[in-house]
Design goal:
Elements lengths: L5 H13 L3 E4 L3 E4 L5 H11 L2 H4 L5 E3 L4 H11 L3 E5 L5 E6 H8 L15 E2 L12 H10 L4 E7 L8 E8 H14 L1
Parallel strand pairs: 3-4
Antiparallel strand pairs: 1-2, 4-5, 5-6, 7-8
Protein name: Transcriptional regulator
Organism: Paenibacillus woosongensis
Keywords: CBS domain
Length: 185
């Protein structure tokens, strides 16, 4: 169509092959390559990112921690919830700001109560593992209308359902990752 011979454009075609815009096979010829657009690359990177690459340090308290100590920890760490573990470090529950606010308003004796009285217990906690995708974590956060999720791995006890907390992933972590990805492009 261009009235050019193959030897004339062979050097141009070899550059396009090296850049993956086109592929070449002997006795077949040239055809479209596997190169993706920058938007496709960004999307693929986001889909491949795992929770283990992104999660932050968990803020953990023990079941025996008093509500007063929990409130102090919550504000010192500037987080929305505290992860509650038992003596062996296994996930027992979660205490949110709302939980602490509800129990302390108008209750003078609340400060000496243990957090285990007011925490959301293990069966009702939504968790993710380090191998889960960030997209899956974001879906869980939106579906359950929560601010963050504990990142857990199976506990060494081997008992079914026993998990150990290794991190937490929050809306803030996910948004920061998205902004960093956009800034790279």
């Amino acid at each position: 169509m261009l009235n050019l011979t193959r030897p004339t454009i062979r050097s141009d075609l070899s550059i396009l092959v090296m850049l993956d815009y086109i592929d070449a096979k002997p006795k077949v010829g040239y055809f479209l390559g596997k190169r993706r657009t920058p938007e496709e690359e960004s999307k693929l990177r986001l889909l491949d990112m795992k929770v283990g690459d992104l999660h932050g340090v968990p803020v953990i308290v023990r079941e025996t921690t008093t509500i007063q100590e929990a409130v102090v920890s919550l504000f010192l760490e500037n987080v929305g919830h505290l992860i509650v573990t038992d003596e062996q470090g296994r996930l027992a529950g979660i205490v949110s700001r709302k939980d602490l606010l509800k129990v302390t308003l108008g209750n003078a004796t609340a400060s000496s109560m243990p957090v285990s009285f007011i925490m959301t217990r293990r069966p009702n906690i939504i968790t993710v593992s380090p191998e889960d995708s960030v997209l899956e974590a974001a879906r869980k956060i939106i579906a359950h209308q929560i601010d963050s999720l504990p990142v857990v791995v199976p506990a060494e006890t081997g008992e079914e359902g026993d998990v150990k907390v290794v991190g937490r992933i929050s809306k803030t972590n996910i948004i920061k990752m998205l902004l960093d990805t956009i800034a790279e492009d």
